[in-house]
Amino acid sequence: MIRVIAPGFFTSIQDLGRLGYADIGVPNAGVMDLYSAQLANQIIGNSPSDALIEIALGKVILVFEKQTIICISGANFSAKINEKPIDLNRSVLVSKKDVLSFEKPIYGARTYVAVKGGIQTEKVLGSRSFYRGVTQQAILKKDDILPIEDWGNSKVQKNASVKIEMEHFTDRNLLVYPGPEYELLSFKQKTQLRTVLFSISSDNNRMGYRLEGVIENDLPSMLTSAVLPGTVQLTPSGRFIILMRDCQVTGGYPRVLQLSEMAINKLAQKATGDKIQFKLEV
């Protein structure tokens, strides 16, 4: 098992989420950056659906109570085992009583700790993903215990590592497609969508990212309609909300754009003040 010594700012257990429950109002949830999470699982031979620890903005300390293999992928939070730096995107043998710690971000906003066999917390509606109102807790707390599988083999694949493209963390461009209400926009509004450089506001979390930057908005009100992670809503004030993995299943603002899957992953690695620009694929 793994004991949580310091839980950090917003650390949770996530997997691929809950699909097929939108009709009863249950969001998808799941890992924010699917690319980094699946990479971590793949490197140590896990299933893509195995649950991981998702860490936002670092400052986490974990103690391992049994030997296992881990891989850390995503943001660089200066990960260390027993105060010695370890590489990202590589299989790492962890021994009993080893301490894994993370400091402040060097780049990125979220990192993933994959453990051999996955984190074995309780499944609810087919998923281990934390979500307030569905699971007993939404974030990890000090002294939480995370069950993991027994793994007694001391051999680690030394070549099990991957070099990632830093563009995943640094690129400002987000590939988007027209949303259901896109054609209601004027030529001027469409031009602004493509040319304005937006900033991530301080109001950003697993539910959604509000953007700094305004465009004119005279669109009529609309009935509440289905939304998905990656849906870009235009509010009456002319500001945008990009819905993320924990978003509600319906919304009442015009859905003017839809992020690609990779764009959602890239946005998950952005923090307050970071800049983004929409790149429209029509």
UniProtKB/TrEMBL annotation:
Keywords tagged on the record: ATP-binding, Hydrolase, Nucleotide-binding, Transferase
One Gene Ontology MF term: hydrolase activity
One Pfam match: CT_A_B
Family annotation (InterPro entries): CT_A_B, Cyclophilin-like_dom_sf, PxpC
The keyword Repeat belongs to this UniProt entry's keyword annotation: no
Transmembrane segments: none
Domain Carboxyltransferase: 23-282
Domain of life the protein comes from: Bacteria
Classification via PANTHER family: 5-OXOPROLINASE SUBUNIT C (PTHR43309:SF3)
Protein name: Biotin-dependent carboxyltransferase family protein
Gene source species: Aureibaculum algae
Top-level taxonomy: Bacteria, Pseudomonadati, Bacteroidota, Flavobacteriia, Flavobacteriales
